[in-house]
Amino acid sequence: MREPAWIGRILPVAVNYRGRSVPVWLGVAFTTAIALWVGFTSLVSRAALGHLTRDRRQILWIAAGCVIVCAVGMYDDYRPARARGLVRQLRLLVHGKVTSGIIKLATIVLAATFVAWAIGEREGRLLLAIAVIAGAANLWNLLDVRPGRALKYFLLADLALVIASRDTPGSFADAVIGVAAVALVMDLREVAMLGDAGSNVLGFIVGVGLVDTLPTWGLGAVLAVVLVLHLLAETVTLSRIIEATPPLRWFDRLGRLRDETETP
Hints:
Blueprint: H1 5-10, E1 13-17, E2 20-23, H2 26-49, H3 54-77, H4 86-94, H5 100-118, H6 123-143, H7 149-164, H8 172-188, H9 195-213, H10 216-234, H11 238-244, H12 246-253
Antiparallel strand pairs: 1-2
């Protein structure tokens, strides 16, 4: 189905996916839905209790961080030509060229700092938390190269965080599962794409959840895994690893529209 011509003037599009343009608005819709839900539930909580609890204030700060990450991701989505690859962009920065990706990364680091501080991280753990949150945000951006891939791994991670959460019923991770499930269906059917505005937010949420759940040594282990995955993405590429691993390939293709270039 071909979208109306006005979409291309209002929304960024990916013009070469399966030979057609797919609008990139799903990430903005995802983040907006979460922000509205958090705002509404916070108003209800404030009206019922007469004040906002500490957990509720933290959820509001996390939602604010997500909005910031979404906005800078949308800024990157709108760039007509973008440098790909973190290493390449860092090399360009060394030579004095500031790319939209570097601006996005710097903003995500600032948002990670803001949220990590707001949820109570301090000193050395604060630095570790910033690295994990920003690293996860960029990692999910690297995953978002096939329909549904980023959201599938997000839902797995988010469900694990909900199960492992210590004492935070009604946490931020709980709030996003339903929205993510709806977004997954739309992504798999290729109605719209997440774009950086959505994929970075997915990773940001996972990163915050990990910081809120894991002990310091666990965060260190997660950061090591994130760095290894970034290294693989810059060399072998994550898509090649997924395609070469039967269980990962099956999970990756689950629910997607058939691509004639793929073998069964």
